[in-house]
Amino acid sequence: MTNILKQALILSLLSTVVVMAEADGPDFFKVTGVAENDTLNIHKEPHAKSKVIGEINFRGDCLKNLGCKSGLTFDESMNLSEKEKAKIRKERPRWCKIAFDGAEGWVFARYITESGCSQEIRP
Fold first, then answer.
1. SS3 sequence of the chain
2. Residue 108: CB partners within 8 Å, gap ≥ 6?
3. Residue 34 is assigned to a structural domain of this protein
4. What CATH number does the domain containing 60 carry?
5. By percentage, how much of the chain surpasses pLDDT 90?
6. pLDDT tens figures, 44-76
7. How many domains does the chain have?
8. Which of 38, 53, 59, 99 has the least C-beta neighbours within 10 A?
């Protein structure tokens, strides 16, 4: 293989890795589905009985995504029936680790959605 072809192949592979890294999920979330008179709890650990270490009001935005766990895998979301998906969601609820207003902890993913917030914009 010539040097030019080798370099093109390497660049192609590197650009694929970069695109995959950016597709991991949103950079920021916002609160959704929380009543106006309620708050979203930030937990120390990813389960409902864990200590609450903070709260976010129903309009909370710019929650930095630090990673999510549990929930459906991509394969499960593409191949299982709705009934099977519902069973897994109940058995393995999805929690996301976030940073917001000086607190870092876990929130129940049912109450967050992707935000258009950028790092330069803070609430």
1. CCHHHHHHHHHHHHHHHHHHHHCCCCCEEEECCCCCCCEEEEECCCCCCCCEEEEEECCCEEEEEEEEECCCCHHHHHHCCHHHHHHHHHHCCCEEEEEECCEEEEEEHHHEEECCCCCCCCC
2. 40, 48, 93, 94, 95
3. yes
4. 2.30.30.40
5. 67
6. 999 999 999 999 999 999 999 999 998 888 899
7. 1
8. 59
Name which of 101, 120, 117 is nearest 40 in CA terms. 101
Domain that holds residue 63: 25-114
Does residue 18 belong to any structural domain of this protein? no
The separation between CA 61 and the C-alpha centre of its own chain, rounded to angstroms, equals 14
pTM of the shown model: 0.70
Residue whose entry in the numeric block shows the structure tokens 């207003």: 101
